[in-house]
Design the sequence.
């Protein structure tokens, strides 16, 4: 079984950003960008840092047909 490759997007929100705004932003990234939540961290000062990830889809080579 192959290990999945992911790309990551890190979002940082200051303490002045309300939870509903953070939730809305994360929902939009999930719905339209196909991101999934990987990790969320809230620091002592109130800053929230969120890591989103999505699987990297690699195109497979098609079979080469002789004579073309």
Sequence:
């Amino acid at each position: 079984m192959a290990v999945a490759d992911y790309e990551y997007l890190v979002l940082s929100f200051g303490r002045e950003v309300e939870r509903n705004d953070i939730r809305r932003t994360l929902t939009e990234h999930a719905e339209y960008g196909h991101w999934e939540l990987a990790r969320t961290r809230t620091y002592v000062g109130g800053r929230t840092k969120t890591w989103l990830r999505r699987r990297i889809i690699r195109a497979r080579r098609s079979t080469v047909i002789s004579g073309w």
